[in-house]
Amino acid sequence: MTPPRKKRPTSYDVAVRAGVSQATVSRVLTGNVKVSDDVRERVARALAELDYEPNSAARAMKTGHTGQIGVVMSAITNPFHQEMLREVSRRLVAANLHPVVWYLDHGADELAVQAIRQRGIDGILLTSATSSSAALEAAIDKQLPTVLLHRTVDDSFCDQVGGDNFRGGYEVAQYFSDNGHTRIGMVTGSLMLSTTRERERGFRAGLYDCGLDISEQSMLRGEVSHATGVAAAERFLRLDDPPTAVFTTSDLLAFGVIDALEAAGRSAPEDMWVVGFDNTEMADWTSFQLTSVDQPIREMVSIAVDLLREQLEGAKRPPKKIVLPCKLVVRRSTAHVAFAPRAHASETAADSK
Q1: CB-based contact 269:333 (threshold 8 Å)
Q2: 3 state SS of 77
Q3: Which segments constitute the HTH lacI-type domain (predicted)?
Q4: Domains identified in the chain and CATH numbers
Q5: What would the pLDDT profile of 330-352 be if each residue is shown by its tens digit?
Q6: pTM for this one?
């Protein structure tokens, strides 16, 4: 004889277990920002104890919302994007939202545009947007809740959250100058990327303020990849006077530089200081011990998800652009030499007025 089927718990059962109203349970399930942390925790505990699974299809038909958030990412081969995706997924799930992830090298823009037009998602997070992003254009056109995370787009009418890439690059130039380096190298990505543009612009501004410059022979621009870092180091080592300090606009590029130095019987920092950008978990590996500009991933993602939830709740306000400070984390690739940041020249001038 087949055992009787276990009754599926309802939102009423959850409400009784948590000691709240059904309306409160509904607000928690839809990620409403107006629910206190204490109540949210009680409801979450009741959901777990009852093994409650909301019927997303039924909810979508009833409310017009799917609970799904599109996430458009760059190639996952970059460790920084791996870490960011992990944090984005964690934060969305904690808010009872379900990430739907698309990668740019697998037709992400087209898939995202299709989902936007069909209202298959309630909002979208774009971590690798450019001014030509079809998904960004479609989201704004449809007035879909949208947040740009990590990479920003000038004059884009939506919320944006990123790190202070200019200041991060500027301080690396200061760091090199403070420690007597005059032969400087740089490995960078495409200027189509806002992060690359700002990091390079800040680095060049810092060099200028320190009375330094960088030659074309000591610079390589290419795809943000380990292979580009390797190619750059090999090129630098062929010069009569190789750079003694190299700034890369991504940790992934820096890992390639360090590996190429070791393959050539050289090392960082003995033959060349190497500094990356992002401060990924790999930067702290024994094999790299990379000095890197830290981006506050958790804070960036937390703010981005909160801004998205505000939009989902119907907040009527002008778009926000939030820029968080970055800091240089010093490790073996620059001989553990400490860094003391100082004011940007323009900041000093403003203070003296």
Answers
A1: yes
A2: coil
A3: 9-63
A4: 67-164+297-325 (3.40.50.2300), 165-295+328-346 (3.40.50.2300)
A5: 999 999 999 988 776 545 443 43
A6: 0.79
